[in-house]
Protein: Protein kinase domain-containing protein
Amino acid sequence: MYNLTLSFSQFGIQKTPFQLYDCQNESLKTKNLQRDKQPIHLVTIKIRQLLQFTEMISVIPRILTQPNKAVYNDGLDNENYDLIVRLDDQIVNQKAQNIYIAKELLGVGTFGSVYRCVKDNSNFAIKIIKNINAYNLQAMKEIKLIRLLNKKKEHECIIKLIDYFLFKNHVCIVFPLLGFNLEELLQETKYQGLSLYMIKNILKQLISGLEFLHQLNWVHCDIKPENILFTDYKAKQIQIIDFGSASEVNVNLYYYIQSLYYRAPEIILGYKKTCAIDMWSVGCVAAQLYLGYPLFQGTSSFDQLQKILGLISINNQELISNSPKCNEYFMKDNQNYVIKNLKIYQNEFNLNLPDPGIQNITKIQELYLEFNKSSLRTIQEMATMEDFVDLLKKLLEFDPTERITASQSLQHPFLRDFQFNINDILKQDFQYQ
Structure:
């Protein structure tokens, strides 16, 4: 499943063009070092110097951070204000005397970079926040929230906070090292999607974690496949990560939240966030797990809204007329509001937007087309599919006040009384291949 082939470069080792000659097969007079021209002790010294030089250049620490040119923070940070980290660098919590050894760059995000580090033969993931004041404040909020979540209840679907500290003017947050995320899982299926049984297991845990979060009046604000990780490589237990964008319900944010493909329509329309935006994202994730690709693949906020309206109907026109951005995206046609044409929108605001993204599905019912390709479907499976589509409709309700909540979702027939059984999953995943 995973390529574990290792190379010299992964460990910062550079190959050196140095070899020993076989004196039995080649004459000494063909070598640069000849006994008749140089005394043996000089030959030994030169070889020793060469070996010392080889040893010196082969242990040059490989820089894990890209770009790696020193720019800010007295040469410690790159042009993006990321801390420059080299292989085997020590990242130290001086107060607690915890020393973490950097081994691998795991990922790069808006707020910073994540590295795999080792301490006492155990692996950890350390998020090193960019050296930007606003990001540092947001990181402190993330620490505060996860501490609160861990303290209230050790919820198995919420990432655990191991350690946090300031290192070279960077906030560092230490988490357990988890397994692969849902995007990587879909990649392993060659984007063919997962079985309904597997989707049930993932959604049950994801929504359970969000129910716990929402009960505390917090919103995650960035639910997407990359932020849902399995705890190991058995693909059973998941945890929600990256609370860097999370916010309390009553706190107003003056910037776009949620990744574009998973952004709720009310956020695009300028409404205040509620816990309902997380549930919209859950619906987008659920559809993607089934299809193998994102349901709405917009290239801009305008295009994303067009994609949503191409699939989801609006029953309450007041949602449009009362929205802060009604006049930006819509124009009135008789008594109804219709979204503007792309050219009209671009000309009105002097924009040059990317070409529209793909719209693969125009009706939720089209999900059945993929499902019905297999002729070996049982009555129970058909009923399960109907429940899945019904839950999807409720999650992708345009009106956030009518959208299904986390608590209600857990009582939906698709998820209610669900028990995870790895053998059933394997049976269903491979039965029709």
In short: Confidence is low (pLDDT under 50) at residues 1-38, 424-433. Residues 388 and 414 are 6 Å apart (CA to CA). The first helix runs from residue 40 to 58.
